[in-house]
Amino acid sequence: MLADLLGGEQVQAAFDNLHASVGHIRAGRLRALAVTTVIRSEALPHVPSLSELSSGYEASAFFGITAPKATPIAVVNKLNEDVNASLVHSKVIRRLAELVPHCPVANSIWKADHPETLTLRYRDRPS
After folding, report:
1. pTM
2. Which residues contact 39 (CB under 8 A, 6 or more apart)?
3. Which residues contact 44 (CB under 8 A, 6 or more apart)?
4. Which end of the chain has less neighbouring CB within 10 Å, N or C?
5. What residues pair up with 49 in beta bridges, in sequence order?
6. Distance (Å) of CA 116 to CA 9, 14, 88, 93, 96
7. For the chain, percent of residues with pLDDT exceeding 70
8. What digits encode the pLDDT tens for the residues 46-62?
9. Gap between the Cα atoms of 58 and 38, Å rounded
10. How far apart are CA 113 and CA 108, in angstroms?
């Protein structure tokens, strides 16, 4: 879909996950009309959220890590340990918050470190 959108002949408009299109938007190859999260994205602060244009609208992406059903528990535990270890690095937290504004890990860590900022951010969002 993204290739067709960039080509401009097959697809003229689309909803896409921010992480896939933000580089194209920043480079001027795509024009973002809005983001679908409740608040504006830190990655594209000049782009309005659809909730600013239509009250109550939200469609957020969800990211997860999965493994095949028969994956040994030792492998699942190691994967869980390594993923959790990566989530304490500020670079990873910033990137998650940039791509997924409502990321529970990024938000919970941000809230613990900056409770006054998070309170203002959510309190000041459009209703």
Report:
1. 0.55
2. 49, 51, 101, 121, 122, 125
3. 18, 22, 25, 26, 32, 35
4. C
5. 35
6. 47, 36, 21, 18, 20
7. 72
8. 999 888 888 777 776 66
9. 5
10. 9
For helices 104-113 and 115-123, angle between their N-to-C axes, nearest 10 degrees: 120
Structure tokens at 85: 């270890």
Give CA separation, 122 vs 40, 82, 109, 127, in Å: 11, 31, 15, 10
**93/107 Cα distance (integer angstroms):** 9
Tokens describing residue 68: 């095949």
**What is the per-residue pLDDT for 114?**
46
**DSSP letter string, 41-96:** -TTSTTSPBHHHHSTT------------TT--HHHHHHHHHHHHHHTTSHHHHHHH
Alpha-carbon span 43 to 81, nearest angstrom:
28
